[in-house]
Amino acid sequence: MTFSPLVLHWFCIDNTTPFRGKLSQGALILHISALVEILLAATATILLVEPYWEFDLKACPVKSLSDWYTLFHNPRPNYDATLHCTQEAVYPLHTMVFIFYGLSVGMMSLIRPWLVHFFLPKTGGITVYAALYFFPILALLHAVFGGLIYYTFPYIVIVLSVISNAAHFAFKIDQSMKALIKSTVTNIRNLLIVLGHWVVHGYGIISLTQLGEPVFHTALLGLVPLPAVFYILTARFTDPHKLHTD
Fold first, then answer.
1. Which of 38, 45, 129, 161 could cysteine-pair with 200, CB 3.0–4.6 Å?
2. Where are the domains of the chain?
3. pLDDT tens, 196-241?
4. Distance between CA atoms of 143 and 136, rounded to whole angstroms?
């Protein structure tokens, strides 16, 4: 779930007027600020969970999906009264995400307003307000679907990276192969977006395989550019003007 706030930060910054579709100095400052905030929050989160002040993590083993939802598995001795003794069976995997979100908001509140004040006094504040909306939503999603996300995270990352990659290219007016390649190579913003999708896609493959078979699974990383290449090669076949209704 560390990726989600960072991606949402960058998405909000990239789609906030007057930065929409541009890689200006102001937008670049906010992008870097978001990255620093998330890195600091993630580092602090690891240090604040057991073993404290160490870059290590001791977690209870996850054996089944029900471990994430102990609220629904309170014991009933002799099938009598229910004992409400719910504990976090996957500690600290559930708690640390909330800690991370709280620290992320704190880091953003300490760093972002200063940058907005000195570099973007008129429009930069919108990105802060956007984060104050999506962090509670992320926390709610984790509280309700934390177990499901734990088991399906690699698949979610891979599928969303493919969909987002296709959406990025779909917004281009000229869908010819030459135009798509040219806009990607010559525009630094487009190039960074495509490379970002590749990084996320590769991360999803590594999360899914855990590189259990180093040779084979490392070779799978060669498929990372495939969604972008596939879209560029097949975009011309999806032109609505070329569809026949008869």
1. 161
2. 3-57+92-242
3. 999 999 999 999 998 889 899 999 999 999 999 999 998 877 766 6
4. 10
